[in-house]
Design brief:
Strand content: 15-25%
Helix content: 40-55%
Shape: elongated
Structural class: alpha/beta
Radius of gyration: 19 Å
Largest sheet: 7 strands, mixed
Oligomer: single chain
Number of helices: 9
Number of strands: 7
Order of helices and strands: HEHEHEEHEHEEHHHH
Distance between the termini: 52 Å
Strand order of the largest sheet: 3-2-1-4-5-7-6
């Protein structure tokens, strides 16, 4: 029988954003831990666990069966969101992928541009690319959560409105203040971003390259840290 690992805070960050009693599509499901947790807790009525590779799908099926949830969770081998529309999900979860890949997946599925569908997204990298895409293409970010597992993660909750939103580059990098500064992990998160930008700026200075972008972001992140201290 498969051994189910304990669901960590990184995955649990999705729970507040999922539509109660709805249908969830988990893209890149791996072992199906997240849909299993959602169905086990009675948060969602049905789920479909999707992955591009056969190995994770087989693992997901074994874990779903071990949890006694074969009547609640389907599996689908597919690339991104192709074919997922027939399940009519209320929420789409995409965890464990880079921001650029999440953008590609969303862009290839125009049917997600529907205000009835919630997007719960956790980019492993390049979160700024994902936020820019969402705001430029008419998605409104309605919530963000910072969580810690092996490192800090950002979970972004969005819905389609059809109205592009203006944003600043620092907002693209770390999210809007109303979500960021409310998190108990905000200071740790900002210090990590600062360290990355300072290293980039130092490398550029060594090569006599322009550091204007980094310097502006560094100043803004330091201001946010001061707000947290006050």
């Amino acid at each position: 029988m498969p051994t189910m690992k304990k669901t960590d805070d990184r995955l649990l960050s999705a729970l507040p954003y999922v539509t109660p009693g709805g249908t969830v599509a988990d893209i890149g499901t791996d072992h199906a831990y997240l849909p299993i947790e959602l169905c086990r807790r009675g948060i969602c009525r049905r789920a479909v666990a999707c992955d591009i590779n056969e190995g994770p799908i087989l693992s997901a099926r074994a874990n779903i069966a071990a949890a006694g949830l074969t009547g609640c969770i389907d599996t689908l081998r597919t690339d991104g969101l192709h074919g997922v529309e027939r399940y009519q999900p209320d929420d789409i979860l995409i965890f464990g992928m880079g921001g650029e890949l999440i953008v590609r997946i969303l862009d290839e599925a125009p049917w997600v541009r529907d205000g009835r569908i919630g997007l719960v997204l956790q980019p492993m990298s390049r979160a700024e690319v994902l936020r820019r895409y969402l705001w430029e293409h008419g998605f409104s970010v309605l919530g963000e959560t910072l969580s810690r597992a092996d490192r800090l993660y950002q979970t972004i909750y969005a819905r389609y409105t059809g109205v592009p939103e203006p944003f600043g580059e620092t907002e693209a990098l770390v999210g809007r203040d109303r979500w960021l500064l409310a998190s108990p992990l905000a200071a740790e998160f900002l210090r990590g971003k600062l360290a990355v930008l300072e290293n980039i700026a130092a490398g550029k200075r060594a090569g006599n390259a322009d550091t204007g972008y980094e310097d502006a972001r560094i100043a803004e992140l330091r201001e946010k840290l001061e707000v947290l201290k006050s």
